[in-house]
């Protein structure tokens, strides 16, 4: 069994060592690096090439969310699980825009943290598109059309609306009488045209632009 590689970014050594101890005790998880500041973190993560980076929101010299944005711009295969010590809708909103796959509070139980790392490392999203839509409506006014939106075909626009509602490819296919593979191809095209890498980012953009 191949272990999932994890990188830790947190300015508190006790927190990093605690998470490392928990994750390294799991046979399918391996911590391959850690860092304590925003400066230099993106380069360190890219060099380590983990499956998932676990990043604290607040760092002494910046934000783990901005680090994640920089990392995913250069290597979108690296997933992001953002940790926070407080409930913050604006941080969640920013994390989604940056391409995070998960957003959890540090107070969660150990087994929940482990399962969250596993899910994100395996390519799953822990962020509910419905929550994304509510955040977009609350925090962002309608925006002007983004580059790429005008390039969407009528069918792609309909697919985007349903993606923004949190529907799966199979559900979208049933709704639009399309094969699931065809829907998958449409979603891939939509993400490319909108210059995003995750469905949640597309859903967020759709809400901001009033498409959804």
UniProtKB/TrEMBL annotation:
Domain of life: Bacteria
InterPro entries cross-referenced by the UniProt entry: CheY-like_superfamily, NreC/VraR/RcsB-like_REC, Sig_transdc_resp-reg_C-effctor, Sig_transdc_resp-reg_receiver, Tscrpt_reg_LuxR_C, WalR-like
Record domain HTH luxR-type: where: 145-210
Protein name from the UniProt record: Response regulator
Response regulatory domain span: 5-121
Record's keyword terms, sorted: DNA-binding, Phosphoprotein, Transcription, Transcription regulation
Positions where 4-aspartylphosphate occurs in the chain: 56
SMART domains reported for this sequence: HTH_LUXR, REC
Species this chain originates from: Nocardioides taihuensis
């Amino acid at each position: 069994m191949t272990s999932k590689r994890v990188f830790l970014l947190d300015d508190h050594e006790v927190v990093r060592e605690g998470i490392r101890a928990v994750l390294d005790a799991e046979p399918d998880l391996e911590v391959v690096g850690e860092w304590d500041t925003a400066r230099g973190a993106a380069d360190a993560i890219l060099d380590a090439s983990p499956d998932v980076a676990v990043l604290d929101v607040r760092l002494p010299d910046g934000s783990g969310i901005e680090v994640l944005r920089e990392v995913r711009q250069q290597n979108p295969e690296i997933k992001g699980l953002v940790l926070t010590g407080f409930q913050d809708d604006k941080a969640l909103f920013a994390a989604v825009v940056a391409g995070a796959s998960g957003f959890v509070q540090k107070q969660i139980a150990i087994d929940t943290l482990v399962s969250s790392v596993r899910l994100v490392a395996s390519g799953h999203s822990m962020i509910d598109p419905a929550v994304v839509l509510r955040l977009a409506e609350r925090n962002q006014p309608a925006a002007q059309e983004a580059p790429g939106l005008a390039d969407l075909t009528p069918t792609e626009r309909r697919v985007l609306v349903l993606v923004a509602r949190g529907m799966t490819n199979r559900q979208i296919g049933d709704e639009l009488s399309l094969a699931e593979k065809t829907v998958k191809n449409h979603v891939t095209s939509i993400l490319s045209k909108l210059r995003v890498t995750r469905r949640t980012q597309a859903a967020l953009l759709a809400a901001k632009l009033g498409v959804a």
